[in-house]
Design a protein that fits this description.
Layout lengths: L6 H27 L4 H9 L9 H13 L1 H11 L9 H16 L5 H15 L4 H16 L5
Helix pairs in contact: 1-2, 1-3, 1-5, 2-3, 4-5, 5-6, 5-7, 6-7
């Protein structure tokens, strides 16, 4: 019989996923400048200082899914943004790719968490007001992808 997750275990899991998202953002930024396979990206960013604290499975899911499905994700983002995804700032694009993927495919992640995490990454690593753009695009995406939650 398994024991229910404790709050401390859930918080640790959330923290590990947050680190995975951060590494995914950094890897996707790097990938936009120097395209290569997701396994190489994953290996490179797991070897960073934050690598041991990341949820490896979630990082793999993010990188593999985004790199494999980039055309559809970019088309979707372009539909919610005011310009094509390829014209976006690389940090904003990476944050949007992560947020849209979570909204579309990771239904166990509440839509508010997906948006909040992506906005937080854009605020931390992006241009001064880039997080506002990310928030607006993901709000539109959530209304389409998760209408039952919004």
């Amino acid at each position: 019989m398994s024991t229910p997750p404790t709050k401390a275990r859930m918080n640790r899991g959330s923290a590990m996923r947050a680190v995975a998202r951060k590494l995914a953002l950094q890897a996707l930024y790097s990938w936009q400048l120097n395209p290569r396979g997701w396994p190489e990206l994953m290996q490179e960013f797991l070897e960073t200082e934050d690598g041991p604290r990341a949820d490896r499975e979630y990082l793999q899911l993010l990188l593999e899914s985004i790199c494999t499905d980039i055309v559809q994700l970019d088309e979707a983002i372009g539909g919610w943004a005011d310009r094509p995804s390829a014209e976006l700032d690389p940090i904003e694009r990476a944050a949007l790719l992560i947020g849209v993927l979570e909204l579309r495919s990771q239904l166990e992640v509440p839509y508010r968490v997906a948006i909040s995490e992506a906005v937080s990454l854009a605020r931390r690593f992006g241009a001064t007001d880039g997080h506002k753009f990310v928030n607006a695009v993901l709000d539109r995406a959530a209304r389409t992808l998760r209408p039952h939650e919004t």
